[in-house]
Design a protein that fits this description.
single chain, 339 residues, mainly alpha, Farnesyl Diphosphate Synthase, two-stranded antiparallel ribbon, 72% helix
Length: 339
């Protein structure tokens, strides 16, 4: 899935496409300025490092699409788009430290380029810059952002802590995905509507759309980690499997009754509630083969389709306009990317 988010969406409506191109260019320029707003040269260099490496910019685009259900020219819309992407960039710095990830956007991650301490502190800087940009938003928007930030942290903590005693690992994973990943997607599209003055019903539908789409998107990433043969977005095939990061296909395969692969996978991944890391090439390759042949893969795809369907249903409660067509098309894109 090469190209920016806007290139992948490619709105059929020329007026909408032009407005989005102009707004995304403005957001991109403001991102650099906001991230680099520091008297310390190291902070300036490190804060701009991953932003300069790229990223598809889904979250600011979703802010702009949500704003189409109000007045998209409202100044606060651009502030919201910049703030949400800064929060996302901050979370990536922290994620890469926690996952010991070697790459991000196809370049060495910040913790590899510098060290863990610098990566964490630069992530904190980006969170602070996002909060500063948000000062221009209304109280309701700032409250929504704070709640999403709280959910993001809660999801990260729950992922690190693992399932509680007696908790189903699959249910635990879905809760983590909702908080850690979907919360920011939901915030983005909802914040766009709020800042643009969309009515309450539209803002509610946008939030429900973003929540469901965010879960579907992350679960499709879970599947891509297993099925991809080529490097995507700077992430090698089976990277989560190698690092012991739980994903839906793995968790479904491990609990599979009557599936002969489940027993062997437990031998490779360990018998705990969550999978262990598989750093060695031989067991890693075997685990990938077993997972690709497992019924769990189709079960995971069905979950992606279910959440994408929920997102589509929410989008159809929105007023009929070109942006709604784009939001609906994203449901197809998400299901198709892991097919």
């Amino acid at each position: 899935m090469a190209g920016s988010a806007l290139e992948q969406v490619a709105p059929a409506d020329g007026e909408l496409a032009g407005r989005l191109r102009k707004s995304m260019a403005a957001v991109e320029a403001r991102l650099r300025d906001a991230a680099a707003d520091s008297p310390d040269s190291l902070i300036v260099q490190a804060a701009g490092y991953l932003l300069d490496a790229g990223g598809k910019r889904w979250r600011p685009l979703l802010v702009l699409l949500g704003a189409e259900f109000g007045d998209p020219e409202t100044a606060e819309v651009s502030d919201a788009a910049v703030a949400v992407e800064l929060i996302h960039a901050a979370s990536l710095h922290h994620d890469d430290v926690m996952d010991d990830a070697p790459l991000r956007h196809g370049v060495p991650s910040a913790q590899v380029r510098w060290n863990n301490k610098i990566a964490i502190l630069v992530g904190d800087h980006l969170f602070a810059r996002g909060a500063t940009v948000s000062l221009e938003l209304g109280e309701a928007a700032r409250r929504a952002q704070a709640h999403a930030f709280e959910r993001l942290v809660r999801g990260q903590v729950r992922e690190v802590a693992g399932p509680r005693r007696g908790e189903d690992p699959v249910d635990h994973h879905l809760e983590v995905v909702r908080d850690k990943s979907a919360s920011l997607i939901a915030l983005a599209v909802r914040l766009g509507g709020m800042c643009a003055g969309a009515d309450a019903a539209a803002v509610r539908a946008l939030g429900e759309y973003g929540e469901a789409l965010g879960v579907a998107f992350q679960l499709s990433d879970d599947i891509i980690d297993i099925v991809s043969e080529a490097d995507r977005a700077g992430k090698a095939p089976g990277a989560d499997l190698r690092a012991g990061v739980p994903t839906l296909p793995v968790l479904l395969a491990l609990r599979g009754a009557g599936d002969g692969a489940a027993g062997r996978l437990r031998e490779i991944l360990g018998a705990g509630a969550v999978p262990g890391a598989v750093p060695d090439d031989g067991p890693h390759a075997e685990a990938l083969r077993l997972l690709r042949a497992s019924p769990a893969l189709e079960l995971a795809r069905a979950e992606v389709a279910r959440y994408a369907g929920e997102a589509r249903a929410a989008a159809r409660r929105l007023p009929e306009r070109a942006a709604r067509d784009v939001l609906e098309s994203l449901c197809d894109l998400v299901t198709g990317r892991s097919a």
